[in-house]
Amino acid sequence: MAQHDIKFALNHMVCPRWTPQQLIEIAAEMGLGAVELRNDVGENSILDLATARAAGQRARELGIEVLSINALYPFNIWNAERAAKAQELAQMVDAAGGCGLVLCPLVDADHTASDEEKRAGLEQALTELDVILGRYDLQGFVEPLGFPISSLRTKAEAVSAVEALGLERRFGLVHDTFHHQGAGETAFFAERTGLVHISGMEDPELVFEDMLDPHRLLVGERDRLDNVGQLRRLLKDGYEGYVSFEPFAEEVHALEDPVAALRASMDFVSKRLA
Fold first, then answer.
1. Gap between the Cα atoms of 228 and 241, Å rounded
2. What local confidence, expressed as pLDDT, does residue 223 receive?
3. pLDDT for 217-239, tens place per residue?
4. Residues of the chain with confidence (pLDDT) below 70
5. pLDDT at site 86
6. In sequence order, what are the residues at sequence separation of 6 or more whose Cβ sits closer than 8 angstroms to the Cβ of residue 39?
7. ω into residue 20 within 30 of 0, thus cis?
8. b/e per residue, 67-106, with b = 16+ CB within 10 A?
9. pLDDT given at position 1
10. Which end of the chain is more exposed for a tag (fewer CB within 10 A), N or C?
11. Cα separation of 121 and 193, whole Å?
């Protein structure tokens, strides 16, 4: 992909006050090709099959791809409850005509499992999810979370487990620029990446290991996460998928004109990449 051909998408976290239909309609109005739906944006969440079908119908009408529902959490702590939730979410992704399910690991300071126990839990979850997602021909998008208390911090760990199980066709990575920087990871896995999430962080006093979701802004001039550098590397290495905006900061969610802010961020990133 040429650097100027970057394909932007909208994660519902750009504006949780929009309904799923509004998210899809605004993506179409902006000339974008895809959205990510969520199950954690309050009353606008995808929580049942009827809502998923309605969103999928609107997406088809407007030619918008549904990339994912975000997310199954904590996917790597497998039990009967997680299996039931995974089945429920897979059905909703299918009802929305979506491509896959985002999978987020446990983040818990009190989680004291050994590295061996974490690896065993990860492999069990991937094995079970292969079966569930396979019923609907869906992808699993594994998103390591770079927080120090995360049970799966790096993409390298995820790739190792997926490859050990021979499940490369079922599972891809989410390269999240915030979590890549937070984990201090330097490896890129463009060939394993199914989805990219971008957000910016501007606080000059904050060290990367102390970053939290409320610090996540749209990407602009004062960004400290090197979003443009990360994207340049991914594109250079052959990534051809979508780049999805995923800001969590309340100041972004409260914007009077989020579309203008998104356009400005798209323009900034595109020009820096050109």
1. 16
2. 98
3. 999 999 999 999 999 999 999 99
4. 1-4
5. 98
6. 45, 46, 47, 69, 70, 71, 89, 92
7. no
8. bbbbbbbbbbbbeeebeeebebbbbbbbbbbbbbbbbbbb
9. 41
10. C
11. 22
Q: What is the pTM of this model?
A: 0.97
How confident is the model at residue 111, as a pLDDT?
86
Which tokens sit at 208?
Answer: 């990367």
Token pair, residue 67, equals 């990339």
Residue 65 one-letter amino acid: E
d(CA 53, CA 77): 29
Q: What is the 3-state secondary structure (H, E, C) of 144-199?
A: CCCCCCECCCCHHHHHHHHHHHCCCCCEEEEEEHHHHHHCCCCCCCHHHEEEEEEC
The pair of three-digit structure tokens given for residue 224, joined into one six-digit string: 């400290």
* Token pair belonging to 117: 């126990």
Q: Enumerate the β-bridge partners of residue 37.
A: 69
The DSSP bridge partners found for residue 150 are: 107
Residue with structure tokens 């099959």? 49
Residue with the two structure tokens 């896959």? 100
